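Pinned message: reference record for Sulfotransferase
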Amino acid sequence: MDPLALIPLKTQQEDAEDERSYQVHSDLVSTLPEDSRWAPVRKFHGFWFRDGWLPSILATREHFLARPGDVFIAAVPKSGTTWLKSIVFSVVHRGRHPPHHEDHPVRHANPHDLVHLHDQLYRWRKNPDLTGLKGSYGIRPIPLDEALDMFCSGITNSGPFWRHVLEYGNEHVAHPDRVFFLKYEAMKEDPVGSLQKLAAFLGCPFTADEESQGVPAGISELCSFSNLRNLGVNKDGVLEKGRHVEKKLFFRKGKVGDWTNHLTPEMAEKLDRITKEKLSGSGLSF
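Predicted structure (tokens):
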């Protein structure tokens, strides 16, 4: 059962308050700086957001209360989020779902069905259209060089990218018990080692018996990109979480360095230069 279905329907008074709150946030969004070269986005507190989603983001920011034991996976789109969701689920629930079991949920459900998207956590129960997640996205295909220019200037969905990296990186240094900073390349290079560090951070380190039985390696194999991509549950059908997305679109090549097939040397040099400038003095590098 979808755990969101357990949330009780709101009263008429609560619905009216939601409508009022949404309208207040919508009015605020309409006054913010905008850009529409790729899709309609608005700038709020230094970050760019899809304008149709921003009222709900602001409502979530206003009402959502995290619990001490909550775990959030924060990442930009297409950076391995789906892969990491399967790993976190399998690490946390390995006692009930050993990786070698044929009925393991990862083999039968898309990772986004196992670990919900944050945009689904705050749901306007009676009128889901208020989330702004349905209807036309208004995304316009643009040339790669123009997209790169926008990325480098920070005008992307939830951009600028470097500010996210810096803020999470700084929090990791200040509070390593609360923020675990992962790099995609490091996970690809040493998946089992990354799993062990992740399990320790989540408060459920692998025991000596689990290590000797190959549990970390089993989870790594189960959640490997090649295995996930070839599972029927991730190849067929659509994911319906307020929007319809073909499941196969969540999995691309999953290879480090594939950018060389898309970016020219000049584009790569520009991106490297700006990355070094933005992260200068932080101790972070890519």
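Pinned by admin. Summary line: Residues 119-137 have pLDDT under 50 and may be disordered.
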